């Protein structure tokens, strides 16, 4: 992987949330509709990062085609969008909590929260946020000799969650004795999550929290 140049994003201390229960733009999220949502969400905070989480019955154009999160920049404002993997493509975007569609058959783990969709979306969101920070314009990293093939911080380490990971094996993770859920991070209020590995350009290897 070859690092390219990118401008650091400004720091922001603002946050807000909203929803669209009436599906004002329909249930198929195309890039044109994503642009409208981002512009509406940014409002008076230009440059803020917009995170769009699609409802279970909304299809996100472009997902499940080798990626489980999409990111980009609209009018100078970066965004991340994720869909519900149980609707979109559970075999591709809900592993290791759901049987994989392809590749070596590995063990299916229990989600730490008890809900497959929720914990799979956490993985997708973590991947998308890492990408929008390290590679906002999709020019940050690429395969040597294949500049059109963009590789990002998390996609460079597919299916890796702990040390010793291999195709079909997540690597070392912890198991919650109360519900059997697999996790590698404990957050606020003791919430447990499974987060993906990220590429470390300094060591030229995948970094995991465990």
UniProtKB/TrEMBL annotation:
Pfam families the UniProt entry points to: Phi_1
Protein localization: Secreted, Extracellular space, Apoplast
Alphabetized UniProt keyword annotations: Apoplast, Secreted, Signal
InterPro entries assigned: EXORDIUM-like
Ranges that cross the membrane: none
Residues of the signal peptide: none
Disordered as annotated region, ranges: 1-22
Keyword Secreted appears in the UniProt entry: yes
Protein origin, superkingdom: Eukaryota
GO cellular component: a single term: apoplast
Family designation: Belongs to the EXORDIUM family.
PANTHER family: PROTEIN EXORDIUM-LIKE 5, PROTEIN EXORDIUM-LIKE 6
Protein name according to UniProt: Protein EXORDIUM-like 1
Organism name: Cucurbita maxima (Pumpkin)
Organism placement in taxonomy: Eukaryota, Viridiplantae, Streptophyta, Embryophyta, Tracheophyta
């Amino acid at each position: 992987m070859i690092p390219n140049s990118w401008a650091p994003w400004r720091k922001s201390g603002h946050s807000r949330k909203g929803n669209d229960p009436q599906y004002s733009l329909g249930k198929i999220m195309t890039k044109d509709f994503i642009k409208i949502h981002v512009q509406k969400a940014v409002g008076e905070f230009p440059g803020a990062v917009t995170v769009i989480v699609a409802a279970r019955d909304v299809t996100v154009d472009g997902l499940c085609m080798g990626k489980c999160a999409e990111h980009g920049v609209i009018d100078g404002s970066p965004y991340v969008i994720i869909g519900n993997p149980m609707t979109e493509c559970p075999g591709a975007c809900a592993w290791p909590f759901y049987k994989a569609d392809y590749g070596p058959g590995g063990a299916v783990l229990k989600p730490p929260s008890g809900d497959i969709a929720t914990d799979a979306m956490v993985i997708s969101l973590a991947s998308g946020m890492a990408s929008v920070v390290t590679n906002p314009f999709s020019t940050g990293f690429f395969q040597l000799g294949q500049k059109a093939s963009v590789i990002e911080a998390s996609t460079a380490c597919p299916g890796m969650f702990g040390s010793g990971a291999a195709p079909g094996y997540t690597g070392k993770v912890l198991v919650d004795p109360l519900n059997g859920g697999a996790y590698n991070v404990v957050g606020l209020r003791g919430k447990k999550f499974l987060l993906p590995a990220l590429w470390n350009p300094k060591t030229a290897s995948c970094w995991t929290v465990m």
